């Protein structure tokens, strides 16, 4: 209370506090509190701005995924040694995982399928597409069956690619025989006491050479009782010599198995049309008749064709 003593006694004096300066301390305290609050506010704002800038710096740039398209949200990597320039945007926002790679078809088969379909009937086109699909899947049996159907079409819808079809057929048949052991052609025999590879092959109407090819890694000259041996099961081989075509067809069970063409510089075949039978040595037999096959082709034929195989000479 601002009381003072006067000549009239104790009286209230409202200006006494201003004269004494007792309220000055409180004013300064108020000023300091206001200043401190302002400084604290400024510091808080500065810290928030700095934190936002740091977050922007750590986040990867927005990916451009096409004109007008929204950018997908991408989590920032925890650590990366690559610069931002290495980041590449996907082509489109709805991109899906790439399908598993499909084995490309063999060059020979692909050349058949991409050939001109315009002049071929629908049946030939469908079979060629089936052949391509079978090649992609590695289905040897389907490829062989499809090629046989294509070549059996009436007329000559595939005459321009017949040589390629026949060459492919021979490769497939050899693989079907020697690698896949086609059960239509190959049987498994259990060796009995006293058996030999030559005897087993002869009893099955086959050759020792083909038995050796069907049993790689097996010493067929020292077979033990109880061993299992693969052998061609009574193959009905036949040969057709084409004089005009200058080729030799090896047929198996009535179907073309493989074709052997004469070299371009080989002389014409003087053999008269007719039917013959092969002796034990097929190589000498062909050389005597003027059929000039390569040594590799003669060796292969000699491996598979047994004695007394019929040979037909055709003027075609």
Number of strands: 9
Helix content: 25-40%
N to C succession of SSEs: EEHHHHHHEHHEEEEEHHE
- Radius of gyration over C-alpha positions, nearest whole angstrom: 47 Å
Main beta-sheet annotation = 5 strands, mixed
Structure description:
The protein has 316 residues and is an alpha+beta fold. Among the domains are: 104-180; 181-235, Membrane-bound Lytic Murein Transglycosylase D, Chain A, CATH 3.10.350.10; 237-314, L,D-transpeptidase catalytic domain-like (Beta Barrel). Helices cover 39% and strands 15% of the residues. The chain contains 10 helices and 9 strands. It has helices at 16-20, 24-58, 107-113, 122-137, 140-151, 162-178, 197-203, 208-214, 282-288, 295-304; strands at 3-6, 9-12, 186-190, 228-232, 237-242, 247-252, 255-261, 274-277, 310-314. The strands form 3 sheets. The protein has a 5-stranded mixed sheet. Strands 1-2 form a two-stranded antiparallel sheet. The chain has a two-stranded antiparallel ribbon with strand order 3-4. Strand 1 and strand 2 (9-12) form a beta hairpin. Helix 3 runs antiparallel to helix 4. The termini are far apart. Mean pLDDT is 78; it is low at 57-105.
